[in-house]
């Protein structure tokens, strides 16, 4: 399997790092794209360096590298996850404004009919945010804010992060044992 991961400047970089660690442990090929603010937010929010996170991905790209393979519809992959997804990126994707590699790769993912998951991070949501989400949901894009499942009785932040990562993997059809499932 081949998964594209975009990291934007919204809060929640640890979600992307955790997802990349899991995908790597499963032996899956990953293509990582950072926005400039995604890099900066990762540095501000975590104790991880960009170089360290880069080692978790099979390939990495800058947001201004429009010649990267992931910008083409002929580049096949099994899904793209933008985690965390800023409202700026949500708006760009919803309106076809492919001004950087993340929004271009998402645009291509939609036009090729592939799985696109936006792990949106904002609260409260404005009517503009909701309209952009609805527009994309109608196109088949999965809008997936990282909402913890308290039925699993999380004890740590890592438990909460793993729950969100597990739900992302579910959407990609990737088997895992990260989460406690309802009724199990």
UniProtKB/TrEMBL annotation:
Flavin prenyltransferase that catalyzes the synthesis of the prenylated FMN cofactor (prenyl-FMN) for 4-hydroxy-3-polyprenylbenzoic acid decarboxylase UbiD. The prenyltransferase is metal-independent and links a dimethylallyl moiety from dimethylallyl monophosphate (DMAP) to the flavin N5 and C6 atoms of FMN. Keywords: Flavoprotein, FMN, Prenyltransferase, Transferase. One of its GO terms (molecular function) is flavin prenyltransferase activity. It comes from the Bacteria. Pfam families: Flavoprotein. FMN binds at residues 9-11, 35, 86-89, 121. The keyword Transferase applies. InterPro entries: Flavin_trans-like (IPR036551), Flavoprotein (IPR003382), UbiX-like (IPR004507). It catalyses: dimethylallyl phosphate + FMNH2 = prenylated FMNH2 + phosphate. This is Flavin prenyltransferase UbiX. Dimethylallyl phosphate binds at residues 151, 167. The keyword Transferase applies. Belongs to the UbiX/PAD1 family. Its EC number is 2.5.1.129. It comes from Desulforamulus aquiferis. Residues 1-171 form the Flavoprotein domain.
């Amino acid at each position: 399997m081949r998964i594209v991961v975009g990291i934007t400047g919204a809060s929640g970089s640890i979600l992307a790092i955790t997802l990349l660690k899991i995908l790597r442990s499963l032996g899956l090929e990953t293509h990582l794209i950072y926005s400039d603010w995604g890099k900066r937010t990762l540095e501000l929010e975590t104790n991880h360096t960009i170089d360290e996170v880069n080692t978790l991905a099979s390939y990495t790209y800058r947001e201004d590298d429009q010649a990267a393979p992931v910008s083409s519809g002929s580049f096949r992959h099994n899904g793209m996850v933008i985690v965390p997804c800023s409202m700026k990126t949500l708006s760009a994707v919803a309106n076809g404004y492919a001004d950087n590699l993340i929004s271009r790769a998402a645009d291509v993912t939609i036009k090729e009919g592939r799985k696109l998951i936006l792990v949106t991070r904002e609260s409260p949501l404005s009517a503009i945010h909701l309209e952009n989400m609805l527009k994309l949901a109608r196109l088949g894009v999965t809008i997936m804010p990282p909402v913890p499942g308290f039925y699993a009785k999380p004890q740590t932040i890592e438990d909460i992060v793993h729950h969100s990562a597990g739900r992302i993997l579910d959407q990609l059809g990737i088997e895992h044992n990260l989460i406690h499932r309802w009724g199990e």
